[in-house]
Amino acid sequence: MKKLKNVWMFSASDMSIAHGPVVHFIELAEALHDFGHTVMAFTPGPNRYPEVVEHEQIYTKRLFSFLPRNFSFQIELLLYFMKKIKLSRPDILYVRHSSYMLLPQILGKILGVQTIVEVNGLSHTHGLILKMSWIKRKIIFLTERISFKLCTHIITVTTGLCEDLIEKYKINKNKVSVVCNGVNTKRYCKKKVSEIDYSIKMALDPEKNIIAYVGSIEKWQGFDLLISLVEQLKNIRTDFVVWIIGDGSFKRNVIEKITNKKINSFFCFWNEQDEKKAVELLSCCTIGILPVHDKRKIFHISPMKLYTYLSMSLPVVAPDIIQGAQILEKHKCGIVVPSGNINEYVKAIDNIFNNKTTCEVMGQKARSVAVEKCDWKIVADKTSLIFQKLFNNKV
After folding, report:
1. Can you tell me whether residue 267 is helix, strand or coil?
2. Phi, psi of 339 (to 5 degrees)
3. Helix/strand/coil percent split, the chain, to 5
4. Which is more confident, 332 or 197?
5. How far apart are CA 26 and CA 32, in angstroms?
6. Is 364 inside a domain boundary?
7. Contact of 348 with 336, CB cutoff 8 Å
8. Which of 130, 210, 291, 364 could form a disulfide with 285 if both were Cys (CB 3.0 to 4.6 A apart)?
9. Are residues 353 and 220 located together in one domain of the fold?
10. Chain centroid to CA 299
11. Average pLDDT across the chain, whole number
């Protein structure tokens, strides 16, 4: 397969924060580089970018701060290209879809370069869109449709998004491919007890099972369900604790709710952005949980945490609405429950805790599935096949 010498990747996400969009973009860029492509990434700064990828930071906080971040980023990106007009011609433009993001697609049309837009979410599925003004909503919907029209190909991370693009956005099905999220299985690998930091070991109770939640603490992630789940589970058994590994705007609300319900002793918060420390924390856990339960988004969600749990050899309890639920069922590395059904969540967790052998076997299968089917190198391979097809048929 041909290795491309000039893949330009664009993201308007805040690269200083280790949340899903940033991790996806960074890991994919690194995996494409390891595959053999030469990658140039254009992002706002500051960043957490790997040194192996050539990278240009566009400092959106320096100028045009009165504009939305994506507008500001694109204006400064345009100024950058005007100064660097002698940049070598790209082979492929790869754009992470976000509100108002159009400049790379326009650039692709002008240069006659194949452009891919990666879609992880659509405006009409986001609850925040309803709180925006009518004009702002219209602008977002318009730029979204223009973006999809200008690009050569669209990659989505779920079958639900693919179906929406075909049915609601009237995109030709041949223009859309599904390539799911992945995980760095070398980085996210279970540590031995001797390799874990002393401060973490001190927090361990050998008599308790640990339920892991890793990721942003936002309401849409299903924290109300998680709190209700803990309330019900504690009536059956008390030998467990939930480790929340991450941070977010809903954290204060969660702490207030669990305090008022007097179940705060069943929770432990680790405000951890460092990957190495997160790996050590997950190495101590018994199972991983995904409490998200928005039934409007059936197969619209491909949570990064699912693949992280699998890579860390954790059995997973997850709802039936997520992309990846079929992996858990097929490979018996977790339990899939009806979305929002607290009783089934409690039953699944209780069953795993009661059978240590089953838990260990599930964990082993989880790791195998992650390595064989979910590693970023597999995602890069699938993405490279799309690159090759487009490059061979370029205008």
Report:
1. strand
2. -55, 130
3. 50, 15, 35
4. 332
5. 10
6. yes
7. no
8. 210
9. yes
10. 14
11. 87
Are residue 361 and residue 240 in the same domain, yes or no? yes
- Residue 310 CA to residue 330 CA, distance in Å, equals 14
CB 370, CB 180: distance < 8 Å? no
Alpha carbon distance 353, 373 (integer Å) = 27
Residues 217 and 354 in one domain: yes
> Residues 6 or more apart from 260 whose CB is under 8 A from it?
none
- The DSSP line for 163-218 is HHHHHTS---GGGEEE----B-TTTS-PPPGGGS-HHHHHT--TT-EEEEEES---
Whether residue 209 is found in the same domain as residue 135: no
Name the burial class of residue 182, with classes exposed (0-12), middle (13-18) and buried (19+) by CB atoms within 10 angstroms of its CB. buried
Q: What would the pLDDT profile of 2-20 be if each residue is shown by its tens digit?
A: 788 889 999 888 777 667 7
Q: Cβ(384)–Cβ(177) under 8 Å?
A: no
pLDDT of residue 141: 84
Q: Which domain holds residue 53?
A: 7-182+376-392
Is 188 a domain residue? no
Position 17, amino acid: I
> What's the pLDDT band for 62 if we cut at 50, 70, 90?
very low
**pLDDT confidence band for 296 (50 / 70 / 90):** low
Q: Are 355 and 363 in contact (CB under 8 A)?
A: no
Does residue 129 share a domain with residue 228?
no
The CATH number of residue 260's host domain is: 3.40.50.2000
